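#data-curation
PF: Archiving a pair of folding outputs for the training set. Convention for this channel: one message per protein, sequence first, structure tokens after, nothing in between. First:
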Amino acid sequence: MKASPRQLVDGLLAGDRAALARAITLAESSLPRHQELAEEVLERCLPHAGGATRLGITGVPGVGKSTFVDALGVHLVRDREETVAVLAVDPSSPVHGGSILGDKTRMPRLASDPRAYIRPSPSGGSLGGVARATRQAIVLCEAAGYSNILVETVGVGQSEVAVADMTDCFLLLMLPGAGDELQGVKRGIMELVDLVIINKADGGNVDRAARARRDYESALHLFPPAPHGWAPVVGVCSAQEGRGVSEAWENVLRHRAHMQAGGWLLRRRAAQARRWLFEVIEGRLREAFLRSAGVRERLSGVEALVEAGSLSPLRAARQLLETWGQRGL
């Protein structure tokens, strides 16, 4: 017999990892019935959520995000004796839509610890590489008792700033030797970062990492100060060797204390909740639009005209929206 939403929530609140996994699976499902169940589960979990430290982690390809998350998670569960949930978003293929979902294999130490929960999820092509249900998963993990939530995204790009809109602190991982890499980092990301960590500061990279740190500190000083008054901190670490990881977390806690003291953490989360509302509205409107019988009848023909260049996308969109307004509502 399938568990009811109440049974699912009761299990989740009791720390049942299987119940948590089932709840997140419901949130990720595109089936209307599953979405309804996920909505009810979320409503029941909201009063029990909100107390965790939410950290977003992004970085250039090859920077060692999974190794860093593994090392940071181990520090939290073993050194600090806390719990941690990792929401690792895998890139979905633009061709066949699949994803590798191999993050657990890249976090071997953390995956074996009972105080840690790792949930790899396909991005599904969503903005910023953040899975469609990641916001819900954060709430569910908090309700399940995890005191730290780490959201690992697929990489750096203009849309990757989406992770900053669902976490308390935004951490950017970079490689030693700023140079060309500094030029390649999008301005939008640099304006949103709270922490920059130069990873792989080991072996022959120690001096290069120190130079990169100075370069990033100089670059960040060129940006106007944030309204909340926090100045981004630049650090170095070797996730492979475990050096500098505890210092990175201390900076996360310093940032959290700063944001709480000025009331900015509550404001940030309130703004995130408001944007979540409109994300859901936009998504539901798009689904309703595409389900409309009138739109479905005209869509393939209009698409063909747009592809042939005989109809502009602007006019095509207006015609389809007018059809939806007349017959789809």
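PF: Second:
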Amino acid sequence: MDMVIHRRIESDIERRILSGEWRPGHRLPTESELMAEYGCARMTASKAMSGLAARGLVTRRRRAGTIVAHPPLHSAALVAIPDIQTEVEGRGHAYEHRLLARRVRPAEDVEAWLAGAGRVIQLETVHLADGAPFAHERRVISLDAAPEAEAADFAAQPAGSWLLAHTPWTEAEHRISAVGADVVMARHLLLPPGAACLRLERRTWRDGQGVTWAFQTFPGDAYDLVARFQPTKA
């Protein structure tokens, strides 16, 4: 029973942190307050807080208590393609998206790696979690690599989820950077212009052929990207 309660405490606190309800620096309830709220033993409350600290969500300081941790910097490359819909739903939120723009056009010079002299479909999307902006996405898809994309209904299914189902990748490249929200981005994410954001630039290939080039931008105070990895053995 205590194991079930400590996981419930962890889940409740994690939800509040990831939703932005509890911001970095927010002081969490004490173990005594958690004991009273959940009707559990001190060891159970301490185990829940230790689990959150081990995952980097909170910082525990003797005499100062426990606070929400500031998002850490991660230099390790991501080893998987995160699907925003799956991630939002995995956090316990209702997912939806809004397709803002869709256009089929010739590939530009900078997109030669993606489509050569072929055509691309250009998309702009806002992803939502419980009705609030979660990420803004700009994406182009090579119609040489994924010709079915031209007829796909991206208003009904987000492009990232569609691609994972229809054109699985064999190679990917990520680039993570801090950016300030421009006027358009700020409007879509409900942020003040210039607000700090995290941007994930992603390129994917299938058997050497470029498939998609996406720029996903997240509010900087509500999201971080974490990779778990092991050293390569000789």
